């Protein structure tokens, strides 16, 4: 105790050394706490700001179009001005084109994402493909519509549901590619090495191990892609156009919800305006539900 006391007294006054360091550390701690609280408050404010606009949009849609969400909306076709009707033909046309577009784009996206994650570790092709996929992912959808119009609609001479499906498929592909690539990259390499150690070929390892491990993430990407293309209007204006009647002919103009909403919202007829609000409410709730389901599936896994 005496030696310690002597060393402590020689080092200087009691308040000059250890206490000053303690005060300095306390000031740093307090500063960090204030910075943490400030950033947390800003994060919460931005979160509430975004939720406010989302809630306002959903509330406005429910107020404007909620009254038109009746059984007739799903059983009657789009009416002429001044008559009652529904959106059966538009709903059926949208479902048909989204389904075909998803069936076309999903296998292409999964296979491309598989190549990037499993075979593209070396060389320039995989980085270039990822870059081009990011460009396509952020490209305006109207450019995709013009592209399909130029290479398909112009050559066949008419609008069609097939053209609309091809445009939606191009929008599906980059979303699925990005999700598949990211999810497969998260699969531990130990699982791959264990398969190779027992003599499993690579294609079988991908199918039986990688796909199973990343199944929920890949399905999430597919659902998010469906949610994205369900509300696209610009590509369908140049490809599928619309149809006032009920039709399952994919080789001709096909009614769809986005284009019908666009046309009815700009019309001077109040009954058409009401149907436009109802269609906007329906498609918004469908997209919101798909997003929630996709996020819930991914979070559960």
Describe the structure in your own words.
The chain folds into 2 domains: 2-67; 71-300, MetI-like fold (Orthogonal Bundle). It has helices spanning 2-10, 18-65, 71-75, 88-119, 125-138, 141-156, 161-185, 189-197, 202-213, 215-229, 234-239, 257-265, 270-300. Helix content is 77%, strand content 0%.
Average pLDDT, all residues: 88
Helix percentage: over 70%
The total beta strand count reads: 0
Unreliable spans are: 4-15
Structural class: mainly alpha
Task: Estimate the global geometry from the Cα principal axes.
Answer: globular
- In CATH terms, what is the architecture of the largest domain? Orthogonal Bundle
Task: Let me know the largest β-sheet.
Answer: none
CATH class placement of the largest domain? Mainly Alpha
The number of domains is 2
Gap between N and C termini, in Å? 60 Å
CATH homologous superfamily title of the largest domain:
MetI-like
- By DSSP (H or I, 4+ residues per run), the number of helices equals 13
CATH topology value of the largest domain: MetI-like fold
- The fraction of residues assigned to DSSP E strands is under 5%
Write the element-wise H/E pattern from the N-terminal end onward: HHHHHHHHHHHHH
Rg, Å, rounded: 29 Å
